């Protein structure tokens, strides 16, 4: 046997890369379907009974909180969509899709009033997961570096 190895390692980050348009479209589709599922998982009679049991004031409060939580999820989704403006590998996109789907389903479940605890758990878990993903994604660092370099070049700052 010769001392030459025929096994080569793939460089870190190598693999199937998805285009920004496909990645963004896929993430938006997942979020839309998850929000719809969160809203429709509870049948209308169950939602009406849960709202009647909770009372008008608590129902209005929880639904207002669901709207505020949806705004928080939209902000995190905006960060994900910005990150997906550059190519991304399939595992990273799947992780973003799971986090975004959980964030979107949460407020829908809260709106239905029958699964408030599960909705809050999904939303907060998805928010935490999305923040951790954005923090640890090596593509995010490259995207930020490129943006900073372009903006510095635009104003004539060297650095």
What does this structure look like?
The chain has 159 residues and is an all-alpha fold. The chain has one domain. It has six helices and two strands; from the N terminus they run βαααβααα. The protein has helices spanning 20-40, 44-54, 56-83, 90-112, 116-136, 138-155; strands at 17-18, 88-89. α3 (56-83) runs parallel beside α5 (116-136). It is elongated, with a radius of gyration of 21 Å. The chain starts with 16 loop residues before the first strand and ends with a helix. The relative contact order is 0.16.
Outline the secondary-structure elements:
Elements: E1 17-18, H1 20-40, H2 44-54, H3 56-83, E2 88-89, H4 90-112, H5 116-136, H6 138-155
Antiparallel strand pairs: 1-2
Low-confidence regions: 4-11
N to C succession of SSEs: EHHHEHHH
**Biggest sheet, spatial arrangement of strands:** 1-2
Helix-strand category: mainly alpha
Backbone shape: elongated
Radius of gyration: 21 Å
Q: Which oligomeric form is depicted?
A: single chain
- Helicity level, as a percent range? over 70%
Count of separate structural domains: 1
Tell me the total number of β-strands.
2
What is the strand content? under 5%
Question: Whole-number average pLDDT?
Answer: 89
SS field, number of helical segments: 6
| Major pleated sheet | 2 strands, antiparallel
Span between termini: 52 Å
Summarize this structure briefly.
The protein has six helices and two strands; from the N terminus they run βαααβααα. It is mostly helical.
């Amino acid at each position: 046997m010769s001392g030459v190895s025929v096994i080569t390692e793939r460089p870190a980050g190598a693999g199937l890369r998805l285009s920004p348009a496909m990645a963004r479209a896929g993430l938006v589709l997942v979020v839309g379907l998850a929000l719809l599922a969160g809203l429709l998982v509870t049948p209308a009679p169950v939602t009406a009974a849960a709202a009647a049991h909770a009372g008008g004031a608590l129902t209005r409060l929880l639904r207002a909180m669901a709207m505020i939580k949806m705004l928080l999820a939209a902000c995190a989704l905006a960060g994900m969509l910005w990150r997906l403006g550059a190519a991304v590998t399939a595992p990273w996109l799947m992780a973003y899709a799971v986090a975004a789907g959980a964030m979107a389903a949460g407020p829908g479940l809260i709106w239905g009033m029958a699964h408030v605890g599960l909705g809050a758990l999904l939303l907060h878990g998805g928010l935490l997961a999305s923040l951790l993903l954005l923090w640890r994604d090596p593509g995010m660092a490259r995207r930020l570096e490129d943006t900073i370099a372009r903006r510095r070049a635009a104003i004539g700052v060297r650095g």
